[in-house]
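Ex. 9. Protein: RING-type domain-containing protein.
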Amino acid sequence: MPLATMSQNSQSTTMMLSALHLDDDAINVHTTAKNVVQRGLSPFTVYTFTVTCHQTSTWWILRKRYSQIFALRSTLLKWRKQCNATPGMAPLADLLTSMAAVEFPRRHICFDHPTIIRDRKRELQGFIAALIRLRQACHTLAQQPGAPRRKAQDVASLVLHFLEMPVAVEDEEHRLSCGRQLQSHTAPTDDACPICMCEFDELSNDDTVLELTCGHTFHESCLVHWLDKKMTCPLCRCEAVGGFIAA
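Predicted structure tokens for RING-type domain-containing protein:
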């Protein structure tokens, strides 16, 4: 591989590695947990992640059990070991090594109790945000000359499927990669959030307005609390699975 290409790959990888641990406002993840009891099965906890991506002006909902997230992390650790042992895989191995360093809750033999659930909510929230950045980094790496493109794309596809990212996210990312503007979304048609009844003009700096696929808009913080109880639109009862950040 030419030295110039190696240098470019090294610089790109360094930037992508730092992005995995970046604590900024580009990606927001809110986490709730609910204990589920089914006949004939041991009780288990389902974690609901409300993901807001300001880069693509999209948001969606992800529901996973701890065991599912643990299994994905185990797969990534196995792939990291394979990449470390394979020549030419250093850039991808570095990304996976950085991902392995992200805080992750340990396994427990006992049933979930409030303390375990509380700690897992906090740590899984950061892990999901890092997963989103890992997919973005692998997608970028797969387009670099001299990089392990196929394996990087495999990692990106695995994480994409696991995160259940809506097609709208990929569409907006494609627009950005082509230098085009994001799809425009109109401002809220209502003057106030239907949940808290506060006007959208009074929006604080740390809150945004989310639009459901049905077209209704709400404060992000209000909608997150609502979705913790019911996974439907508060107004029309349509299923709430994601949407866009209202302009």
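Check your answer against this statement. Residues 26-178 form a domain with the PX Domain fold (CATH 3.30.1520.10).
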